[in-house]
Write a structure and sequence with these properties.
- Helices cover about 80% and strands about 0% of the residues.
- It has helices at about 1-15, 25-30, 35-70.
- It is mainly α.
- The longest helix is centred in the last third of the chain and has 35 residues, at about 35-70.
- The chain has one domain.
């Protein structure tokens, strides 16, 4: 049971969203002026990463719910 409690604490800490970073400010600082190919690529990469991040969180939540249902014999 101690392992289950530890897993629960780790997933709770990782489930909290990271602070939002302004994509425009980030890409201006790291890729240059808006409209440049590097800036456009930066914005695209950040959009894709955001979508993947939300998908990963949704999948993790579904797995956690399934595991809890199995443990509770639902």
């Amino acid at each position: 049971l101690a392992g289950c409690a530890q897993l629960s604490q780790e997933t709770s800490a990782s489930a909290q969203p990271a602070p939002a970073v302004d994509d425009d400010a980030y890409c201006r600082a790291n890729a240059g002026v808006p409209g440049s190919s590097a800036y456009v690529a930066c914005r695209k990469n950040r959009d894709v990463a955001a979508v993947r991040g939300s998908s990963d969180a949704r999948l993790e939540r579904a797995h956690r719910n399934l595991a809890e249902d199995m443990l509770n014999r639902r």
